[in-house]
Structure prediction request, 226 residues.
Amino acid sequence: MKHERNAIFWLRWVLANTVGEAVGLSVVLLVGFGVLGPRLAGLTGAWPAVVGLVAGVLLGIFEGIVVGAAQGVILRRRLPRLALRTWILVTVIGAMVAWGLGMLPSTLMSADASGGQAAAEMSEALTYVMAAGMGLVAGVILALAQWLALRSLGSQVRRPGLWLPANALAWLCGMPLVFLGMGAIPTGASVLQALPIVVAATAAAGAVVGAIHGLVLVKALLPGAW
Prediction:
């Protein structure tokens, strides 16, 4: 009975992360692809960095609200003392900090690929290695405020420190899928043409991320774990 209950919770958690990232992260990437990218290209001096930083923080707020709400609704089924607004807030903080560090995915995906086929292939391979490394770091940043919220619940959460490496591992695996999706957008594609590719990539990333840190959540952190 306990195994079935945990399995249902895990499936709901994976679905929540899939939908949350498919909505929240897709909007961030599509705004960057269709709105910010063309406009930043026309700016000079320090303006691209300034506008990118402000936009990153604002977009992080949106993603944090969407993902935090999706996760929080499910998480409160097992942690009723955790206020939904608290989980949304800490998720927003993590997303703001992560996106505020820069638009590295867009920078890498728009990098000049000149220099021959072999160089292009090496560049692509390096891009996905860097994506995994970025996910490793971003996972910790995204989870840091959430970890503080989990730790504040005391004995309700077992070993809350595991939430940080769980997110690091999850995003190490999930971030390359985001890069893969952005790299699959045809040159000159419109936002509408890019939409299904971006949604598919972010949904896949959300499912992978949710499956990994959801497993740690169910098996190690929550009361009544396996």
Summary: The two ends are 11 Å apart (CA to CA). Residues 2-111+129-221 form one domain.
